[in-house]
Amino acid sequence: MPSEKVLEQKKQIVADLAEKLKGSVAGVVVDYKGINVADDTALRKELREAGVKYSVVKNTLLGLAAKDAGLDDLGKVLEGTTAIAISAEDHTAAARILSKFAGTHKNFSIKSGYLEGDVIDLATIESLAKLPTREVLLATVCNAFNAPISAFARAVQAIVDKGGAEAALADAPAKEEEAPAEEAAPAEEVAAAPVEEAAAPVEEAAAPAEEAAPAEEAAPVEEAAPAEEAAPAEEAAPAEEAAPAEEATEE
Length: 251
Hints:
The chain is an alpha+beta fold. Helix content is about 55%, strand content about 10%. It has a domain at about 5-130: 2-Layer Sandwich (Alpha-Beta Plaits). It has a 5-stranded antiparallel β-sheet with strand order 2-3-1-4-5.
């Protein structure tokens, strides 16, 4: 029967492991059977660089810790040699690294895992393993927002160049007022065009009227006035000179 000291040590191990499980976002349980020291060292190094903590544990202790962390279903796969990889921040790192390692080492296999407090099956672990690294995901998100941010930066710089937000706001209405004035000019030209076109027929209609004016020039008919020159007929008055005949009668 284990001593009191050993029991206390085991209790502490279980408590610490349970806290790690609760404070992590993902983890993978593996069977490390058949792995040599060199491969084990290389695997631990890769996991450590990715921020994943890897450790070999006894099935009984991991079962107690998993139960305390609310991951009771992990107990179903706890047999044989067991190690667990725990990730505090990266959801895919453990699944990606361990799945790749298992693909090149036939005796190394994945038993189970968990994600955000829920036990997941092997199919889900394989799906997580196919996702890109955290750095690649962040780069993709940054690229997606890159264009809008660049446009925003240019707009801010334009405001700074104009002397601040107040100057930019004061300048904006002026430009808006100028634009309608310029747009109104074509409207005036369009409105004036029909007037000029309408005036043209009037002028053309007036032209024939002026051409008809020669009818007035027919006035030379008044030159018939020479009929007055017939007045010499009045000069026939010399008939009065016949009066001497009367005078002869008196004699």
